[in-house]
Amino acid sequence: MKHISFVDTSLRDGPQSLWNGRITTSMMLPIAPVIDRVGFEALDFMALISMDWCIRNLGENPWDRMRLMAQAMPNTPLIVGGVLRNFGNVPDSVTEYWALKIAEAGAQRIRINDPCHDTVQVKKAIQWSRAAGMTTMLALIFSQSPAHTDEYYGQKALEFAQAGADRLFIKDVDGLLTPERTRTLVKAIRRKVDGVPLEIHGHCTTGLEPLCYLEAIKLGVETVHTAVAPLANGPSQPSVDNILRNAERMGFRHDLNTSALAEMTEHFRFIAHNEGFATGAPVEFDLFQYEHQLPGGMLSNYQAELDKRGLGDKLEDLLREVALIRRELGYPIMVTPLSQYIGAQAILNYTLGERYKIVSDEIIKYALGHFGELIAPVEKEVMDKIKRLPRAKELQNWEPPQKPLEQLRQEVGKDLSDDEFLLRVLSSNQEAVDRVLAAGAQDYQYPRADQPVLAMVRKLLTDRGKTCVQVETEGFSLTLN
User: Fold this and answer.
1) Whole-number Å distance between alpha carbons of 231 and 294
2) Structural domains in the chain plus CATH codes
3) For residue range 212-237, what is the model confidence (pLDDT) as tens digits?
């Protein structure tokens, strides 16, 4: 009987896709020992970008989160990672040091997602990660275009394997795979790198991803990335319950403790109800997704940004502009940070009345090849317009700033702890860092789903409109003032 393993995404990509990242350490920590008993191969836990999110939007120290959760789940490897190339002002020396420090904090696997599949950048990231003692997972980020062929992905898989990748995973961030394309894609990758463990991580944006997962495991994909039901479907990953049930019917065995899984699921269902968060649900198929290819989790944020600008009713127009820009730029993959760059450029083109009248530095750098080799050339008319911009001339010879760690230590603060140094270099909001560090150790308490009375009392006591709470059951009365 064939075996299938599961990576859980309920603590990172699930809430990022459905809850706008609003999951706190206190929501994770009480259930961590239960999660550790489920038997997941690993846990998709944190991204480089979500460390800054923890600070800016949750007021939490991401180093505390990582260490506490690693201690609470000694049997489940934590996956940390994301885009490890320099798109801004972070030198390679910092990213290399960050890889070492997350390994020390408890990360055992690292996801390396390069939006351009740039083998030069990938080799550096593998070198840093292996030196830190982590297992490397390399993303083959799927996209639909004339240039993103099965042959292209097979060749990239071979390059990454030869560069030293321990594992490969198909990353369908925009939910574009179909069962038919999954069959040809997996076969093309397998032909090039048979023997390297292959995983699949996809989003249910078009509703087809569960079918694609089943096709993938038929063809030898060993590991699937899923979330518990309250954090699955919609723009998130497929439900572990659904994939597990169907995989069993196909003759696959697994190592999951279904009792612990049910307890974990109920915990996050309780959180969703308690916090008023949406729970995932299957979506209807949308052919328009294949044109604009904006990630499902980004769509809600994009809509919110348009609402702030008074363009809330223009979403479909803006998505058409996104699709056009993507084609003109040679089909960049719509994944962080490129999807954000193109989304912002679409707003500029739409609101200024002249397309590419103003072009962001990021789009200019992409067109000039500073972010890696382009899979297809930028259309000539657009490229000519970009090159005529004064800013393009200034950025023609741009290179990412590279400073040694010792110099940055002197500039940022030579007496800072490693944690604070990295937070300050990587964060976009120094005032938020100040607040988090000033707060010190936090009390990460959250009511459990199996303690409903205690949860109710805590909730009532935090309501300033209440002066007295009385709980009564047969033979028992409690009054709190």
Assistant:
1) 20
2) 2-275 (3.20.20.70), 289-395 (1.10.472.90), 451-481 (no CATH)
3) 999 999 999 999 999 999 999 999 99
